[in-house]
Automatic annotation (TrEMBL):
<dbReference type="InterPro" id="IPR001584">
    <property type="entry name" value="Integrase_cat-core"/>
</dbReference>
<feature type="domain" description="Integrase catalytic">
    <location>
        <begin position="33"/>
        <end position="98"/>
    </location>
</feature>
<dbReference type="Pfam" id="PF13683">
    <property type="entry name" value="rve_3"/>
</dbReference>
<protein>
    <submittedName>
        <fullName>Integrase core domain-containing protein</fullName>
    </submittedName>
</protein>
<dbReference type="InterPro" id="IPR036397">
    <property type="entry name" value="RNaseH_sf"/>
</dbReference>
<dbReference type="InterPro" id="IPR012337">
    <property type="entry name" value="RNaseH-like_sf"/>
</dbReference>
Amino acid sequence: MDMKGAGATIRYPVRDRDAKHPALIEEILCTAGIEAMLTGVRMPRMNSIMERWVRTLRAELLDRTLLRNERHLRRALHKYERHYNEHRTHCSLPAAAPLRPLPEPITGPIQITRLDIRRHDRLDGVTHEYRHTA
């Protein structure tokens, strides 16, 4: 049996390892066929990090895309994961992506003689990336 609410089916609710979690709730969930997934050991922020990632995924992809079927969803998620890790800038990584090296710092005065910026569509046009051309 699955818990249902707001059109969602919940099979594996995530909870922390707090000792205050009553055994009775665990027993009720098990009786209903629901297995609670525990966060990692000594990782109090694990749930908040995943919540942030899911919120970003929804805002940048899922709320803007009409998905046709599971295959289309999996393809879109794979493309978004690559975009998120290889191209999307992150505030915590001074405007760099996790799998891309930090840009070289600018030293000395710069004079721009020609500004040529190109736009590249990402995620089938849902979001865009801009780059200077050489």
